[in-house]
Fold this sequence. Notes:
Number of strands: 15
Strand content: 15-25%
Bound molecules: calcium ion
Number of helices: 9
Structural class: alpha+beta
Oligomer: single chain
CATH class of the largest domain: Alpha Beta
Amino acid sequence: MLCLSYLLHLFSIIISLLTDSSDLRFKKMNYLFTILAVCVAIAAAESPAISKQYRTDYIYDKNTDSFYKMHTDQASTDRAHTTCQAEGARLMAPESEQDLALVHGMFKKFPDIGRLVLVDGNGVGHDEADEDEEPIINLDEDTDYGPRRKCEVVNREGQIESALCYFELPFICKVNAKDAPYNEECGTYSNDYVSKVSLTGSCYRIARIKANWNEAYANCQAEGAHLAILNNEGEFEIVKGMLDKTPRSVEDWQFFVGIRAEEKKSPIIFRTIFNQTLEQVGYAPWDNNEPNNSFGIEYCVSLLRTTGKYNDTVCRNRYSYVCEKERSV
Ligand SMILES: [Ca+2]
Ligand SMILES: [Ca+2]
């Protein structure tokens, strides 16, 4: 970040202050405070609370000062909660008529997703800061957790209904602008990025929710980053170290990165999402005997957990993935 280099510059000025005459010292102090104020203003302006900018797949509504996203894929209540949380948001608990009007509006863009979306009916996951604002829906003391358990849904007209919970439905995530995460050091709309800027010039996030390659690509992009690309040995070591520290689950033995090839084309040429061939990148740590285009269906690239190296794999399979955001120091 530009400010970072300014701050380093400021540090050298502070050191020089010790030896300066008082007149010069005064001028330098003035300069120092101006730059500092500008940096603070820039950082604040980037935060969603001020900028009203968030992930590119969320829309902003000024009446509620909140961001919303309609997820058109169908999910259970549990998965809807986890997905919204991974995006720095919550499964929407409708709090106002405006919330419902927005759902009605969002539905218009998707004529083919049925007539119901899942919302949070009982205020679970409801922001504690808003505790005085009662959610519109208050589900009755529904203690039946069997197949007849009812969940809250909103229909195309923006009206609340209840439906059996075992239905998987599209759902809506919402986050108030003041709560929307922004990692200033990394410049990402997510707090899950780890800064390795001093080592590789980038921040990284290893996803906890699996996705196919296209979804992974869209997700990194939406939060202001991109699927990772290994540019040199040093970056390989850093990312491998992060994979080693990632908690294991049975299935996450590979992690998508930002490289793929055009399907069914011969010869197979892998390119980065910036359209560079791996020869142009100048670094391609393939694992032993990879790429092997196993069963003739492997056109996307992942990192293997065991070695941290590249493997060609099936694009539509769901794996974890690594996002990267370059920060020039
Ligand atoms: Ca990189
Ligand atoms: Ca392979």
